[in-house]
Backbone:
């Protein structure tokens, strides 16, 4: 793919405010992308501190630091903040920065709506954090907000419900913007099957968001009306059904899992060809695999709730449907490895994170297959095996993809190279401490340690101590990333070239580093 | 008289449309697809008693409809430059409203601005042209207009 004609310097005619008003009123996709990414990084540390507070309590058996009620609040808020405050906004930040640059569009389709989408996030984050300080504390029903727990808890639950509403509205506006931009504003010559994989994965993710966000909004609204307006959607005493909440939540929740990983697949599909210096192997199969995963994600929700009791036929259906997801996911992993095969590979930090992602995410995928088997899941439901599984796909999956993407595009965004040595330290320490934290959880989970419980039997003491040491190591390793960012943004690194990476392909690399405030005001022609 | 009514008498015409990577029927298809999926899911939940999902899905589809509608209104935006006798006409259509700017051929100047931006200027009036063209096409238009107006390239 080649841009016949890439950009023109337009800084001069972009009369935008400066100082704080620039960031509040901005409608520029690059500014909004930066805001999303900084917000997500902040929330990542807030959620991370909550996780360390959990691990602190779990360092030894017995109750040392927190009351059990507060421990449950910590688990719930850690999940909510990481899912809705860190991972999702981070991917939206990448979409804001990269989608227009990668398709040759001047900006997002609805620039003002883009600004609103972002500025809804901070109030939602404040609601979530403030809920710790209201009577009864924050919601403690788990990030899944299961009824009847959530219909009985204190006002912290209401704040969480409002926060979820606001975050949902932000996601819906963001995804409408992304779908409209990708479909309508591609540069001439950029057909759908010429789009970079990151753009494809975001198109499909935005579709998933549009399909399931109303389901989440409806679910939490029903919890709200059950709490305050006398309805009985989930109250068995009033003719409702608490299990219906689980069906509704997971109908949203399982596609949500793919919402958090598909853009990560897209990032990895950009990084691997660059550092293998080969085109992506099996581009069209990657697109079809992504679409298949999205379609299958609507048919597997009940694997999260095998233990509530369901007919054998339903158990079989959801078990096999879940296993089927391994096929398109396997296609992706195969294609990444095939791209590397006989490639001229180098291992700069983005590639390290991409390789780490492929290795560790695959392990999370395999434990997912284990959990898909109904009789096994009935044993492992709500144990640390599940915690290990979803942290392997969300931390080593989504988060490593985000870090890989950040290192990959950072020189393009800020015009300076980052400190490669620090980047490598960040990767290796994250990789090691991640496994030290979460690998033992497979063992404790298989041995029956239940999740979301602040105390445990002596038999689990050693593994929990190892997990806690790993968690603090992982948390502290992330400070390297902050220092690296601070150094790079401060201009410490050498000037980045336009192409940054020798093997990089795509429209964004035809622009200067950093790109001018306005880019592609007239579309380039893609050959 | 509308610009378009005089089009047949021109000796030079350039016509450029806004870049649209999706056709109107494509937009309709995408909207219909998303509508069926989203409302279908919400309706299925309504049948089992979880009706509050339906208004949220409806609201979302309303916003999506407005977004596509706004895009659709601008999909037919175009710009036409015509030279007929001693007149230069610039017809700019935005959101279904066409505006016609007329210049005297011998007074009109082609002005190149920041970043290959292009305008036609005369008697203190300036109209930006070539907004739907890319830089190369705009430079070519500047050369062509300069030659046609005064036998020179643009200033």
Residues:
């Amino acid at each position: 793919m080649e841009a016949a004609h890439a950009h023109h310097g337009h800084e001069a005619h972009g009369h935008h405010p400066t100082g704080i008003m620039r960031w509040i009123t901005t409608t520029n996709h690059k500014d909004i992308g930066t805001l999303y990414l900084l917000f997500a990084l902040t929330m990542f540390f807030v959620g991370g501190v909550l996780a360390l507070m959990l691990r602190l309590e779990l360092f030894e058996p017995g109750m040392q630091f927190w009351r059990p009620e507060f421990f449950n609040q910590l688990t719930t808020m850690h999940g909510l903040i990481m899912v809705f405050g860190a991972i999702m906004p981070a991917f939206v930040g990448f979409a804001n920065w990269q989608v227009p640059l990668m398709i040759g569009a001047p900006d997002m389709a609805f620039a003002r709506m883009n600004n609103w989408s972002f500025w809804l996030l901070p109030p939602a984050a404040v609601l979530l954090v403030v809920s710790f300080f209201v009577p009864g504390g924050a919601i403690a029903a788990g990030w899944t907000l299961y009824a009847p727990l959530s219909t009985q808890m204190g006002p912290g639950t209401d704040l969480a419900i409002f926060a979820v509403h606001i975050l949902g509205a932000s996601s819906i506006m963001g995804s409408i913007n992304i779908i409209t931009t990708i479909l309508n504003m591609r540069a001439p010559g950029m057909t759908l099957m010429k789009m970079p994989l990151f753009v494809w994965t975001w198109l499909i993710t935005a579709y998933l968001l549009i399909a399931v966000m109303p389901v989440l909004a409806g679910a939490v609204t029903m919890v709200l009306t059950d709490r305050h307006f006398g309805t009985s959607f989930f109250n068995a005493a009033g003719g409702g059904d608490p299990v219906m909440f689980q069906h509704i939540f997971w109908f949203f929740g399982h596609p949500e899992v793919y919402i958090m990983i598909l853009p990560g697949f897209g990032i990895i599909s950009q990084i691997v060809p660059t550092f293998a210096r080969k085109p992506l192997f099996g581009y069209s199969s990657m697109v079809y695999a992504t679409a298949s995963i999205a379609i299958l994600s609507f048919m597997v929700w009940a694997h999260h709730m095998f233990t509530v009791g369901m007919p054998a036929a339903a158990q079989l259906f959801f078990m096999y449907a879940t296993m089927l997801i391994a096929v398109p996911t396997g296609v992706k992993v195969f294609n990444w490895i095939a791209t590397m095969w006989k490639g001229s590979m180098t291992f700069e930090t983005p590639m390290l994170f991409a390789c780490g992602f492929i290795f560790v995410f695959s392990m999370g995928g395999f434990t997912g297959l284990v959990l898909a088997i109904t009789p096994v899941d009935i044993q492992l439901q709500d144990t640390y095996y599940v915690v290990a599984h979803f942290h392997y796909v969300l931390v080593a999956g989504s988060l490593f993809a985000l870090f890989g993407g950040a290192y990959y595009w950072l020189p393009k965004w800020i015009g300076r190279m980052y400190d490669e040595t620090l980047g490598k330290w960040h990767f290796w320490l994250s990789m090691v401490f991640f496994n030290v934290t979460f690998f033992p959880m497979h063992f404790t989970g298989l041995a029956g340690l239940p999740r979301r419980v602040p105390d445990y039997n002596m038999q689990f003491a050693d593994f929990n101590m190892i997990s806690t040491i790993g968690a603090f190591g992982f948390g502290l390793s992330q400070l390297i990333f902050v220092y690296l960012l601070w150094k790079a943004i401060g201009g410490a690194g050498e000037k980045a070239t336009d192409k940054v990476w020798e093997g990089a392909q795509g429209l964004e690399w035809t622009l200067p580093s950093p790109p001018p405030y306005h880019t592609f005001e007239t579309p380039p022609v893609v050959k | 008289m509308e610009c378009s009514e005089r089009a047949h008498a021109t000796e030079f015409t350039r016509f450029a449309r806004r870049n649209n990577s999706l056709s109107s029927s494509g937009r309709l298809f995408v909207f219909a697809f998303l509508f069926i999926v989203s409302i279908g899911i919400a309706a299925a939940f309504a049948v089992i008693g979880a009706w509050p999902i339906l208004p949220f899905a409806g609201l979302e589809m309303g916003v999506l409809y407005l977004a596509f509608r706004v895009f659709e209104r601008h999909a037919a935006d175009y710009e036409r430059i015509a030279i007929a006798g001693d007149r230069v006409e610039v017809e700019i259509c935005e959101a279904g409203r066409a505006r016609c700017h007329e210049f005297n051929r011998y007074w009109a100047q082609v002005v190149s601005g920041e970043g290959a931006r292009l305008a036609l200027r005369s008697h203190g009036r300036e109209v930006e042209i070539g907004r739907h063209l890319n830089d190369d096409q705009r430079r070519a238009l500047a050369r062509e207009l300069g030659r046609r107006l005064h036998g020179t390239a643009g200033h």
